[in-house]
Amino acid sequence: MENIALIESFSEFKDDKLIDRVMLMAILEEVFRSTLKKRFGSDDNFDIIINPDKGDLEIWRNRVVVADGEVEDENSEISLTEARRIEPDFEVGEDVSEEVKLIDLGRRSILALRQNLISKIHEHDNTNIYKQFKDLEGELYNAEVHHIRHRAIILLDDEGNEIILPKDKQIPSDFFRKGENVRGVIESVELKGNKPAIIMSRTSPLFLEKLFESEIPEVFDGLITVKKVVRIPGEKAKVAVDSYDDRIDPVGACVGMKGSRIHGIVRELGNENIDVINFTNNLQLYITRALSPAKITSIKIDDENKSAEVMLKPEEVSKAIGRGGHNIRLAGQLTGYEIDVYREGVEEDVELTEFSDEIEDWIIAEFSKIGLDTAKSILEQDVEDLVRRTDLEEETIADVMRILREEFE
């Protein structure tokens, strides 16, 4: 088999790879030199001539002619008799160049060479893919569902690159079928061994920020800035927006007429409730806006401890806390302050943890999950509503309320 035919057989598998012919030739030379070094002990006296346009490759072995019986290194020296078999007029001390046919290296060497070549090309491909997706970290990306596993969905993009969407990076309501297109952000790219692991996320706050850029022209153009995004994926999100142009209403532009602009984003996120608020450097006003839709009576801020005490009318407390405590938790994350809610006109209340000797910790934790962490906050609730909102039995809730009432009698 001629060298050129052998090269063509090696390059058959490259058609679907991210590699051009010039790079293939460079890898070929590297691989061939490695094979020659193993076969002959050194590749220093070999010339490898590559023609990338034709895909041709020649290997020439250079040796010095020595007198018969004086050959010490068969790789770099050749006896006069052997040299004259190549050309009859060679003399001692002259250089002999002899072409090496790959087929002369032996079948085992050629198989090893082919395997090494495949490995080098895969390594090159993986490096290119890693660099390509490393530049896409934090950007929106589309891919198609290829395989659904218990802990992750495997996606393929148009170029056949594998992207992983782990279960914990999916919105709880997400449900995908094979062949369906999925949108998310490229969260991270890591090399595991020589193979890049590309992780997509739909739960990252950055995904929501990039959806704003994608769906709202003023955000894309930089007229509106997304200052901060906080999320409880699939449940609720708060987005603080600002504009340097006083003529633009950033909240109105993001929401659109009757919610027309934000509706597509909400649908993409599995009907996640999104509050869009105007950012401000006025901390009191910012916390007030962050706790919407609740109306606040007064705020006391402790900058040293990054905390805020918020006073509300009793009927506003549940709005401030929100279902499952989501509203107050996100408001705290958005502003960077721990927010404590107090009822206006209520002079005396007791933290639920004070009853830990009578009420089990897991029961207290169940109430805390829905934002009820004081005695009066529970006593103001309806028993049936608490049964619906917690994992507690009606009998357990009634018993807790009895204990709490005794505190105030």
Automatic annotation (TrEMBL):
Pfam families named in the record? KH_NusA_1st, KH_NusA_2nd, NusA_N
* Family annotation (PROSITE patterns): KH_TYPE_1
Show the SMART domains listed in the entry.
KH (SM00322)
Query: Species lineage, top-down?
Result: Bacteria, Pseudomonadati, Bacteroidota, Flavobacteriia, Flavobacteriales
Kindly give the CDD domains that the UniProt entry links to this protein.
Answer: KH-II_NusA_rpt1 (cd02134), KH-II_NusA_rpt2 (cd22529)
- Say yes or no: keyword Transcription present: yes
A biological-process GO annotation: DNA-templated transcription termination
Entry function: Participates in both transcription termination and antitermination.
Protein name from the UniProt record: Transcription termination/antitermination protein NusA
Q: Which domain of life is it from?
A: Bacteria
Name the species this protein comes from: Leeuwenhoekiella palythoae
Q: Where in the cell is it found?
A: Cytoplasm
Please provide, in alphabetical order, the Gene Ontology terms of the cellular component aspect for this entry: cytosol
Domain K Homology stretches:
233-306, 307-384
Q: Which InterPro entries match?
A: KH_dom, KH_dom-like_a/b, KH_NusA_2nd, KH_sf_prok-type, NA-bd_OB-fold, NusA_N_sf, TF_NusA, TF_NusA_bacterial
Task: Select a single GO molecular function from the record's annotations and give it.
Answer: DNA-binding transcription factor activity
The family line of this record is: Belongs to the NusA family.
User: Which Gene3D superfamilies does its entry note?
Assistant: 3.30.300.20, Nucleic acid-binding proteins, NusA, N-terminal domain
Q: How does it assemble?
A: Monomer. Binds directly to the core enzyme of the DNA-dependent RNA polymerase and to nascent RNA.
Keyword list (alphabetical) reads:
Cytoplasm, RNA-binding, Transcription, Transcription antitermination, Transcription regulation, Transcription termination
